[in-house]
Design brief:
The structure holds 2 protein chains of 2 kinds.
Chain A: H1 2-28, H2 30-58, E1 61-63, E2 69-71, H3 75-82, H4 84-104, H5 106-117, H6 122-130, H7 137-147, H8 154-161, H9 176-200, H10 205-213, H11 218-246, H12 250-255, H13 267-277, H14 281-311
Antiparallel strand pairs in A: 1-2
Chain B: H1 8-12, H2 14-44, H3 67-75, H4 78-109, H5 115-127, H6 134-142, H7 156-162, H8 166-177, H9 181-189, H10 194-205, H11 207-223, H12 226-231, H13 240-247, H14 253-273, H15 275-286
Classes of the chains: A mainly alpha, B mainly alpha.
Chain lengths: ~300, ~290
């Protein structure tokens, strides 16, 4: 009885003393805290926050190269809506996303599950599948351009060997998107497979043991244990892949420069062209703002959908 | 003890053996596909200037012309390109890690006021696609606000923007949060100040995660194309990715291939030698969303 009331009496003062100590310690060290923080704040302010803010400001301006900018209201946005490139670039981005999901989404999942089954040599496959990731895109396209070469390229030579007619991979409007997506898939699948593999290591062997004892076939085990375990990460990889592909710039810029026609023109490329070839920074910024809205909006919709699915 | 969806006993049955061998073959084929462009660049770099255009699947050059590699080394001025790239990337990695580790330390152990808001401001940059504020970033680099410095054609124009990396700050803060507070407190009782704790305790304890982030940063910055393309216009100072792309048109395809292969080697060697850290980094990266 007495002890509990004593504790109640002591507690508040103890607590107050401690919070007072924390308070003093906090204020005494605020200068130190900001000494450590200032470099990061400065670079973020200069090279991230300010440009993001400027992106929005410039989209309402006519920015001339001499540094004079005049306010033009919504003119850049009105121009954007009338620009035939708007529809072309965004549909291309969408088609790129669909192609990349078709060609590249399930490959890493299947590979991870299969590599996990290997009793020897897992390390070898990890390293080898990962290597394309480290190749700079600018270098990869020099190599891929030659693999795709209609006359001297290896791809057509290989098809010729198995009796299939060679193709103009990068100039045929029907083939150029999957051809570019194949390059992106090549450089990205290993990283994604590694992420799935790491997740598969967490599945306890006992779970499979128990399922096996209950008479579940290997396919049933994959369907009921492996896939459900991977689903949350697959969902995350899905959104990351879509966001990355919609922003794609370097591959189409270097490999096809938007061609043939405007088949591989992406929003990011159009921003680049308008800003750094025509020097119309204001107009390019209107496109940038649209890109931010679309991508952030897409991730918000995804978050909501993902939460709903997970709660059900 | 270690098993996948198939148990070791199942793999010893005839069906299991067939499955295992088939899977091994499939995985090996995909490994060949993944490695093919490397191999292709290497052997094409050894071919003669006309031989390279003969059609057909001639994998190996008739007579390997090793002099292509020395030729392209000189023609592309590879030594200078490597030196530029290594200089840009090394300083950028050091600066990025220093800025990020300091900020993470402050967030994790020094309780800065408004720390929560500042860190959300940092994380916000992960949501906004980089390409979307690329144009004003370029304008900013050409005319730094208030100071009015023009950083175009200087390496500072790359080093400073490369320091912006909320992901590193976030990973390091999470790591620092998990350092037992008893260690830090006892050091504080012994009279160590914040600087000493940072340099003598926090950094040494975080060596592994710092290496992971350094390797990721090295490969990522070595790969970068758009920023150096726009910021560094002086051919003598451009990094290898940008310069090689410009030069590609001027020389024979075999020399391009030889040069490309050589340019691949540094990140390749890093990825193989530091594979443990690299893979750790990738997995950490996967969780960031």
């Amino acid at each position: 009885m007495t002890t509990s009331s004593q504790i109640e009496n002591i507690m508040p003062t103890e607590k107050r003393k401690r919070s007072l100590e924390r308070f003093q310690y906090k204020w005494g060290n605020q200068i130190m805290a900001f000494v450590f923080l200032i470099p990061a704040i400065l670079v973020f302010a200069t090279f991230a926050w300010y440009p993001i803010y400027q992106s929005i400001v410039m989209s309402f301006q006519d920015v001339s190269l001499t540094g004079q900018s005049t306010w033009v209201g919504w003119a850049n946005y009105e121009l954007m809506l009338k620009d035939p490139a708007l529809e072309i670039a965004w549909i291309n981005a969408l088609q790129f996303a669909v192609w990349s999901l078709m060609l590249g989404f399930f490959v890493p999942v299947v590979l991870a599950v299969l590599v996990r089954e290997m009793r020897v040599g897992q390390g070898f496959f990890r390293v080898v599948y990962f290597l394309p990731t480290v190749v700079p895109v600018a270098i990869a396209v020099i190599i891929w351009r030659f693999i795709y070469d209609p006359d001297a390229g290896y791809l057509n030579a290989f098809l010729d060997m198995v009796g299939i007619q060679g193709q103009n991979w990068l100039t045929n409007a029907n083939l150029v998107k999957p051809s570019l997506v194949a390059v992106m898939t090549w450089s990205g699948f290993g990283t994604t497979a590694l992420i799935y593999l790491a997740s598969l290591q967490e599945v306890p062997g006992e779970l499979y043991d128990a399922a096996e004892l209950d008479g579940a076939s290997p396919l049933q085990r994959i369907r009921n244990i492996t896939i459900p375990h991977l689903l949350p990460i697959m969902s995350l990889m899905f959104i990351l892949q879509v966001l990355a592909v919609v922003q794609v710039f370097t591959e189409p810029f270097l490999l096809t420069n938007g061609g043939p026609g405007r088949e591989t023109l992406t929003p990011a490329m159009h921003i680049y062209n308008r800003a750094f070839i025509r020097f119309d920074f204001g107009y390019a910024s209107a496109w940038s703002v649209m890109m931010i809205i679309v991508l952030v909006g897409f991730s918000i919709i995804y978050r909501i959908a993902d939460n709903r699915l997970r709660n059900n | 003890m270690d098993r996948g969806f198939l148990s070791n006993t199942e793999l010893r049955t005839p069906g299991g053996r067939i499955f295992y061998v088939t899977v091994t073959i499939i995985l090996l084929i995909i490994a060949v596909v993944a490695l093919f462009p490397f191999f292709f660049a290497f052997t094409s770099g050894l071919k003669g200037s006309t031989e390279i255009f003969t059609s057909g699947l001639n994998m190996f050059p008739a007579t390997p012309q090793w002099e292509n590699y020395t030729d392209s080394w000189e023609k592309f001025d590879m030594f200078r390109l490597f030196r530029n790239s290594i200089w840009i990337v090394t300083i950028a990695v050091i600066l990025r890690l220093a800025v990020s580790a300091m900020a993470a330390y402050s967030f994790s152990m020094l309780n800065p006021i408004f720390g929560k808001y500042i860190i959300s401001g940092f994380l916000l940059t992960l949501m906004v696609p980089g390409i979307a504020y690329f144009v004003p970033l370029y304008v900013t680099i050409s005319d730094i606000p208030i100071l009015h410095w023009n950083l175009l054609d200087t390496y500072w124009g790359l080093w400073l923007p490369y320091c912006v990396d909320a992901f590193s700050i976030f990973v390091l803060k999470t790591f620092f949060d998990n350092i037992p507070s008893e260690i830090i407190d006892s050091a504080r009782v012994d009279g160590a100040n914040s600087l000493q704790i940072f340099f003598r305790m926090v950094l040494p304890l975080s060596r592994s995660i710092l290496i992971v982030l350094a390797v990721l940063a090295f490969v990522g910055i070595w790969k970068d194309f758009l920023l150096p393309l726009l910021v560094i216009t002086d051919p003598a100072r451009q990094p290898i990715t940008v310069r090689l792309f410009y030069l590609a048109g001027d020389h024979g395809v075999n020399l391009q291939m030889a040069a490309s292969f050589m340019a691949l080697l540094p990140p390749l060697i890093i990825a193989v030698v530091l594979q443990r850290y690299m893979q750790l980094g990738v997995t950490v990266g996967g969780v960031k969303g």
